[in-house]
Write a structure and sequence with these properties.
Number of strands: 0
Low-confidence stretches: none
Distance between the termini: 33 Å
Radius of gyration: 23 Å
Oligomer: single chain
Length: about 230
């Protein structure tokens, strides 16, 4: 007698629970940031004796845009560097690292491309031209593109927000290129970059010695500290 099959709708939620959970949490946190940012921005306007903004006006403002995009670009930068860096860089004993003898892009057989592609492999993996080369680097390339786009959005929104502040102080606005060379732009960028790089370094080394049962980001609880590239 066959077991009861799980409804398709239930399978969808279970099969995509990681993306759905974090996507939903992102929207909740973004809404919270909007409310807190709106309140703080209006407090600053009140101090300057200026008219306050509605929540809708604040969501369309450059101040909200720059606060959001400066965090996005640092996250995409983190994943871009991590994806490409872990091709060659290793950490003995970390599940975040490949095995020590696998540094580099690995062989076609290990990567299941070209003649080694399987029936269930992505179609472009079985090609031997530019499509395979492009698809072989598509994840890192996508993260790099998202970083560049969010960095560009941050720089544009940051220029507008910076100029709004200057106008309140009766100072002339600056150009986009001038803002890119300003301390404000690099302060916003670097304070996010350093935190992301610290988090990656901490995860790489702490996962050598510490465990989280059932997590693919951790080694099995009983794995030795020197086991590398092993996930639980």
């Amino acid at each position: 007698m066959s077991g009861r099959r799980e409804p398709r709708e239930g399978r969808f939620w279970k099969d995509n629970s990681l993306t759905l959970a974090f996507g939903g949490a992102f929207l909740v946190v973004l809404a919270g940031q909007a409310l807190a940012g709106h309140a703080g921005f209006n407090e600053d306007l009140a101090v300057d004796g200026m008219q306050q903004l509605t929540i809708g006006e604040y969501l369309m403002s450059s101040d909200f845009a720059v606060d959001v995009t400066e965090n996005w670009q640092s996250e995409f930068l983190q994943f871009f560097l991590y994806i490409f860096g872990t091709v060659w860089l290793l950490q003995r004993g970390s599940p975040e690292s490949k095995e020590l003898h696998k540094a580099g892009p690995e062989s076609d057989q290990e990567q299941r491309v070209g003649d080694h592609a399987r029936a269930d492999s992505p179609r472009w993996a079985g090609t031997k031209d530019w499509r395979q080369r492009l698809y072989s680097r598509s994840l890192g390339t996508a993260m790099a593109l998202l970083f560049v786009l969010s960095w560009l959005a941050q720089s544009i929104a940051g220029t507008a927000a910076y100029n709004e502040q200057r106008l309140r102080e009766l100072l002339p606005p600056v150009s986009w290129s001038s803002y890119l060379a300003s301390a404000d732009f690099w302060d916003r960028s670097l304070q996010n970059w350093q935190s992301e790089l610290l988090a990656v370094a901490a995860m790489a080394i702490l996962s050598v010695y510490l465990r989280q049962r059932g997590s693919p980001e951790s080694k099995p609880v009983g794995a030795s500290h020197t086991s590398t590239g092993v996930e639980g």
